[in-house]
Write a structure and sequence with these properties.
The protein has 421 residues and is mainly alpha-helical. It is built from 18 helices and 5 strands. The chain folds into 2 domains: 3-283, no CATH class; 297-420, no CATH class. The protein is elongated, with a radius of gyration of 27 Å. The protein binds zinc ion. Zinc ion binds next to α6 and α7.
């Protein structure tokens, strides 16, 4: 499908559901450019995610050497997500529009917007079964849009294969229990229903007067299909427990066969996604490279320089904790030995690294805790909103040392003019 057409649909749906969207390409920008963290934070704020919440929920992460960067790890696992706003604009964050997978995600997330607007499937509850219905509905809605939009019969067939392959491929990475989203039964019924109506008639039935698709009506229609054909709560719970449910066993086998047929198509698509992910990884790496020299110790010419080096070292460890292990602990608790918790799913190696980092930070603190300037800077580095001040101070000190070095050199030159010629 044409990427511009998908974007146009998304813009229309956003307007209809009082929502906004952004893609990683737009906020993560390009090689050599800075991230548009401010734009991202602004959009999050519109959705009711103030700075603190955005930080605590890892939408933005601390950058080595001060500043923040945008966490785009969901790009690889889910391709997108929707944030519901209480009083404001819902926000969809997406990978892009190019690949089949991207386009599937766009309409999937759009379905969540309609769920919110039409109050379908207890949209704000965290009940597992409701989540299942929401996700399955989002998949079915996305399938329907893409089936009706495919231009040729061949494309339609490909979509079918891809859809069905996706119906067992797609899983919620945060909660592995929702593996596959189990949308296959409904998707098969949808394909059947479209075939029965005839694709052209079906398209007409779900079009507005201006010829565009009537997405809201399609959201309602697919919601009815979900109500009719989704696994019932007791079946769903059995499947979660790994127990056998006849229809599910049957469909899982069937889906595997489809997946083999659709593999080639999906493989092509994966390449597109992989190349984009690769680009964004390089953007991250390149950014880190640029910040690397900031992390080096400044010459320890006096007590202040030593203090600055110590505090900045602590911040580097703090950043590693959050970036690599998703770990946030108040630095003060850490140095007091009042360890809050050790994450739930760390490997032994990770747990050891975390403990090592804690000990290193604690040692540094013990060494300097009687120095008032250290305590002041430690306080600043402990707060995400003031930590940049410490890194700025480091830069300033470095300049001072450099210019001091130069003026001493100048004095030296003046005193011994001949030696330097
Ligand atoms: Zn979803």
């Amino acid at each position: 499908m044409d990427a511009n057409e998908v974007r146009k649909d998304l813009e229309y749906i956003c307007e209809e559901t009082y929502s906004q969207y952004v893609t990683y390409d737009e906020i993560h920008t390009a090689l050599g450019a800075e991230h548009d963290v401010q734009k991202f934070l602004g959009l999050l704020k519109d959705a009711g995610y103030g700075f603190r919440r955005a930080y605590e929920e890892n939408f933005v992460l601390p950058q080595y050497g001060g500043g923040l960067f945008i966490n785009h790890s969901s790009e690889e696992t889910e391709g997108g997500y929707t944030l519901y706003a209480k009083n404001g604009k819902n926000l969809i964050v997406l990978s892009g529009f190019d690949s089949d997978y991207d386009q599937f995600t766009v309409y999937h997330e759009c379905a969540h917007l309609y769920q919110r607007r039409l109050n379908l499937f207890g949209v704000l509850s965290n009940d597992d079964y409701n989540t299942y219905l929401q996700e399955v509905h989002a998949n079915t809605f996305s399938s329907m849009v893409r089936l009706l939009k495919s231009k040729t019969v061949l494309e339609y067939k490909k979509q079918q294969l891809c859809r069905i392959a996706n119906a067992i491929n797609f899983y919620n990475s945060q909660d592995k229990r929702h593996q596959y989203y189990l949308s296959l039964p409904i998707e098969l019924e949808l394909i059947k229903a479209i075939r029965k109506k005839g694709r052209k008639n079906c398209k007409k039935e779900f079009s507005l007067k201006n010829g565009e698709l009537d997405f809201e009506n399609m959201a309602l229609y697919t919601a009815d299909m979900v109500k009719k054909f989704a696994f019932k709560r007791f079946e769903f719970l059995r499947i979660l427990e790994g127990k056998s449910v006849d229809q599910h066993d049957f469909l899982t086998r069937k889906a595997k066969a489809y997946r083999i047929l659709g593999r080639k198509y999906i493989q092509m698509d994966k390449k597109k996604v992989a190349s984009r992910i690769y680009l964004h990884r390089r953007i991250d790496e390149e950014r880190e490279e640029r910040f690397k020299n900031k992390l080096q110790n400044i010459p320890q010419v006096d007590e202040e320089a030593k203090v600055i080096n110590a505090v900045c070292a602590i911040d580097v460890w703090q950043t590693t904790m959050k970036q690599s292990y998703g770990y946030q602990e108040d630095l003060k608790d850490m140095v007091r030995g009042k360890y809050v918790y050790l994450g739930f799913d760390h490997t032994d190696d990770e747990a050891n690294s975390i403990l090592n980092i804690r000990d290193t930070v604690k040692d540094l603190y013990e060494k300097w805790k009687d120095n008032p300037q250290f305590l002041k800077l430690f306080e600043k580095i402990n707060n995400i909103q003031t930590r940049d001040e410490v890194w700025a101070l480091k830069e300033q000190k470095e300049r001072e040392i450099q210019s001091l070095g130069q003026s001493q050199l100048l004095k030296h030159i003046l005193r011994h003019p001949s030696k330097n010629r």
